[in-house]
Amino acid sequence: MKEIKTTIYECEYCRKYYKRKHFAVKHEDLCPLNPINNPRCYSCEYLKKVDVNLIAEIEVSGYDYGISYDERERTYSLFKCTKKDVFIKPIISHKKGKDFEPNLISQIEMIVAPLECDVFNDCFKMYDLPNFLKG
Ligand SMILES: [Zn+2]
What we know:
Bound molecules: zinc ion
Largest sheet: 4 strands, mixed
Number of domains: 2
Helix content: 10-25%
Strand order of the largest sheet: 3-4-5-6
Order of helices and strands: EEHEEEHHEH
Number of helices: 4
């Protein structure tokens, strides 16, 4: 057996280990326990998950194998600040570049979850936190 001494990188927030530094750096930026990824919304009483119907563009295959587009109403389950009346996009999904299609975004007002908020009202319960952080 060969013993190899190597450097291991540990996330400061969740203590996950990485062999490669750039993976650890990337992870820390997106780590759900990193304070920069935890806006006040997550424990605010005004944050609610709501179903909203939006017009989505869908691909339709034709008989001749051509693709065309059609519109359908679809229900999306989104987070909403009921005080400010805007939809809230989780910071992590924003950082990952997971954006709604432009035609969906144009139908609603959506902001990235703010780290500080003037209408924050602490309710001491983390609202569906694991799913929220995943985005
Ligand atoms: Zn971590």
